Amino acid sequence: MKNTIVLKKVSIKLDGKFVLKNISFSASPDKPLCIIGTGSSGKSSLLKSILGLVKISSGKIFINGQSIEDNKIRKVYDTFGVVFQKDALFDSLTVWENIMFRSLNDFSKQELIRKSLSILKKVGLARNDAFLFPSELSGGMRKRVAIARAISHKPKFLVLDEPTAGLDPVKTNVIFNIIKKLSNNSNTTLIVVTSDMRGVLKYFEEVVVLENSGLHWLGSVAQVKKKPTKYLKKMFERVA
């Protein structure tokens, strides 16, 4: 299957301590996947290892069958859309300029604005929002703009780190709905790190559960609902 990510016994050791140990799983377009775990379980390190931002100590990561250690992997990463926990918008640029940042030198201003308006519509923002600056946006709007920028080049992979952090339940549902719809409509492989347990149960199909830097559980969300472990029960009790 196209647009696949496969991890095989991936471990990361920093300053003599394992932050991830023997992690194996795969992600594909047909099963939106989330990664959950407590604060120090290694979620962000796992995401960064997939993106090539943290070097793995052992194991293998393959993207479309190609090892991330391959010198040609850069071309594959060009097919990724990424949203970090902090939206990382450019404060000196307008919304449309942020969205089209990769292509600012490739098209006329009119064409860039036209393209950005089409993308804004996909994330539920209005035409006038394109001409605002990030400082004029609410937290939920900033998240949507970050997602819009991530999908501006029609990525094959969409990777998001805590996309709903700090948002109220209503805005959280809006963001998760947008992400799920984008994934379904574009055959994009979706990997999301989240601490929102309600979102996990409602919007995803596969879940990777980390505990103490290791893989605690891997499987479908339906299985989580049916037979949660004690560790998972504790996590979901927080939102009961």
How would the blueprint of this fold be written?
Blueprint: E1 5-14, E2 17-27, E3 33-37, H1 43-50, E4 58-63, E5 66-67, H2 73-77, E6 80-83, H3 95-99, H4 109-122, H5 139-150, E7 157-161, H6 169-186, E8 189-193, H7 197-203, E9 206-211, E10 214-220, H8 221-226, H9 230-237
Q: What does the model show?
A:
The chain has 240 residues and is of the alpha/beta class. It is 35% helix and 25% strand. The protein has helices at residues 43-50, 73-77, 95-99, 109-122, 139-150, 169-186, 197-203, 221-226, 230-237; strands at residues 5-14, 17-27, 33-37, 58-63, 66-67, 80-83, 157-161, 189-193, 206-211, 214-220. The strands form two sheets. A six-stranded mixed sheet has the order 6-7-8-3-9-10, sandwiched between helices. A hairpin with a 2-residue loop joins β1 (5-14) and β2. α4 packs across α5 and α5 runs parallel beside α6. The longest helix is centred in the last third of the chain and has 18 residues, at 169-186. It is globular, with a radius of gyration of 18 Å. The mean pLDDT is 88.
Summary keywords:
9 helices; 4-stranded antiparallel beta sheet; Rossmann fold; alpha/beta; 10 strands; 35% helix; 25% strand; 240 residues; 6-stranded mixed beta sheet
Number of helices: 9
Give the CATH H-level superfamily of the largest domain: P-loop containing nucleotide triphosphate hydrolases
Order of helices and strands: EEEHEEHEHHHEHEHEEHH
CATH class of the largest domain: Alpha Beta
Just name the CATH architecture of the largest domain. 3-Layer(aba) Sandwich
Structural class assignment? alpha/beta
Give the % helix.
Answer: 25-40%
Strand order, largest beta sheet: 6-7-8-3-9-10
Give the mean pLDDT: 88
Number of strands: 10
Q: How many discrete structural domains?
A: 2
